[in-house]
Amino acid sequence: MTDTTATASAVKAPAAKKGGAGLNIAIIVSAVVAIIGIVLWVMQMSGGMIQTAMRNIDSWGLYITSFMFFVGLSAGGLIISSVPKAFGIKGFGGISKVAVMTSIAATCAAIGLVVVDMGQPLRVWELFVYSNLGSPLMWDIIVLMVYLILSCVYLWAQVQAEKGKVGHVALRVISVIALVTAVMVHSVTAWIFGLQQSHEMWHTALLAPWFVSSALVCGTGLVMATVIALRAAGYLKLDQSYLVKLAKLLAVFLLVDLYFFGCDLLTEAFPAGSGLAVVDMLVSGPLAPFFWGEIILSVVAVVLCVVPQLRTTPLLAVAGILAIAAIFCKRVQLLVGGFQVPNIDMPAVLTPFTVTNWEGNMAQAYSGMVYWPTPLEFGVTLGVVALGFLIFFLGLKFLPLKPQDQE
After folding, report:
1. If we measure between CA atoms, which residue out of 290, 221, 300, 206 comes closest to residue 253?
2. Distance CA 30, CA 390 (A)
């Protein structure tokens, strides 16, 4: 189907009323899964973090991997919404408020994943009482809170602007601030890893721009898949040409992200330095499924986005989902790979509770250590993700996210 034909065949379904049966079911299912996740989280707190597969040497796992991933989803959604308004260019057909709502939901999920990773949430207050402002972790906490508040303010400003209560200049100023904050959120998250010189694959200046490019990929993919689903449900009326614009942007972002990935791999492996062990582990080792998964999913998504005959609505939704999955594979490689080969020798007592292969020396312990989450971790993470979906669905039900002319 050509772009012209696709545009002419845009969906003209009537706008769904708030409180439709499908939306109510989605809210109920998300709430039930979130409650199950909370129950599993209580079990984790009662039994301790020993119930997870994380250990002293591999101290971050699925929770922080998903945290990185959801920060990217949130930043990408806000960037897609704010760039047109900040630079005074044509947008994407009234999807701005929906994009910001995806950002708010993803940010809430990201914060929830940090909380469950802390082990004891009742001590959260200590972060603020005993803050170390020289720590990138504290920078991230501050910028995430500011980012969530700003996202809510930005959504409110857009709603008020449609009612004529917020001027064009004020909305543009807020858009510029939101854009800068979105970039900073992912930059600071990248610095949590990039400023740790003791880990291969983390300690590189490329990490911050690489995180921003990944945010653009998965954020654009999320917005595209979301608006396609909402259009199919009759919630939004959106011309196909806007989806084609999003698809072209997604293809560009994917290619840039793959370029950064190639640069990082070359820097790690050449000339047969210590980072070569990480590259070998990614290309042909235990993390190879995630490495090749990212490459293949990204390439397929690019093809679906750039070939006019393939830019049909169902395949564009598939491209968005594939792009999101590719970035998640990338997050797994980064976090797990960074723990496998250290730059600095770290003396430690070897026990079954610290490393996978503990009967021997440190080199033997590291040779057998590849993290895999426990069922409890999967359950808690699924509950936090469901909470994010619940927030988004509630926004669809109770907030005026549709363009004013479609209400």
Report:
1. 221
2. 5
